[in-house]
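Exercise 3.2. Students should predict the tertiary structure of the chain below and write it as structure tokens, then compare their answer with the key that follows.

Predict this chain's 3D structure.
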Amino acid sequence: MNIGTKYGIGALGILAIVVSLVAVMRFTERPPSELEIEGYLAKIGGLSVDAAEAMRQQLQRTRSDLTEMREDHPDWAAEIDAAIRGFNESEPQQTDAALTKIETLIAKRRNILRGEEAKTKRARATLVYPFDYARAEPLLCDAAALAETRFWYWIECSRVRRKLGLYPPALAATQTARSLAKAQGEARNFEVAGDDLGDLLVIEGRYEEAAKLFEEGLLTARERSKSLGTPDALRDLSVSLNKVGDAARTRGDHAAAAAAYDESLTVRRQLSDQLGTPDALRDLAVSNERVGDLHSENGDFVAAREAYERSHAIHRDLMDRIGTPDARRAIMIPLHRLIITALQTGDLPAARTYYAQAQTLIPKLHPLHIEEARAAFAQLAPHLKE
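Answer key:
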């Protein structure tokens, strides 16, 4: 006697039960793993705002690569998920082992899976060796060579070479990225590559060439901000203005630097009012610091102090709202400069007040930065005596 006869269930009833069971099994399957980017950034701490954003964007690009691989190769899903879980759970050995399995699968058809090999190398560099630049560099740059026409692969190769002090190879990778962006008609990417190239030229002391690139980037950023008017386009404009200002300041053209910094400050104030996000507020604080630095170099310590006060107030608000070690680290910059400008304007009581604030905050910094901060403020201590 079969089950249907014993329990009075016909063939259609059995079919319905099977379909229901399959649906339940699908519903209860573990969903695909995703990189927990914000959790990771919060966990590691100790990064500057710009470094954290660069890491965030590289992780987002790696996440897109892994999603593409999962869609194109469903039979690799278990290994991809294992690699992601290892990253999320701070188990790089698990991530490394899972990526090695994927590489074994790729090796069987390497001649037709160059793109997948590139994605796997990039994933290993980003997820397993995020701060081991010596190991990440060959992986990222091999990935760029394999991917050939993918802009961000070449930029990531260039940036890791720059961190290692490999400036000529970094320049070559950036120039490849810039050529790709131009050929692909990607104005935003062309602007990014131009800024990176300019930064490398500054390191090499080629200031005039760098200034020319930054001016070209500013023209592009202006056009994009006018045509798009989006917050991202406006922020890009402010970044380009700061780079032009930095270049002018380096060559001693303080009038041009002031014009660029003031315009950037105006744009960032607009974005801060419009968005009110921590990132927009941090950008506004940094712009005030640049303005203050320029006033200080010009000997206008009163104006410099006013700019640093504005930066300090913004960072203080962010610190109270967010309360992270990184938020406390950010406020150290205006505090240090406020002590100096208070002394330069003869306000010893204010300088001591700022110093006391710093001493209260230093033990609450990320462990990586405590000794560095103590040393920086210790140099000012002798000047705070009667």
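Discussion points: The chain is about 80% helix and 0% strand. Residues 1-9, 11-30 have pLDDT under 50 and may be disordered.
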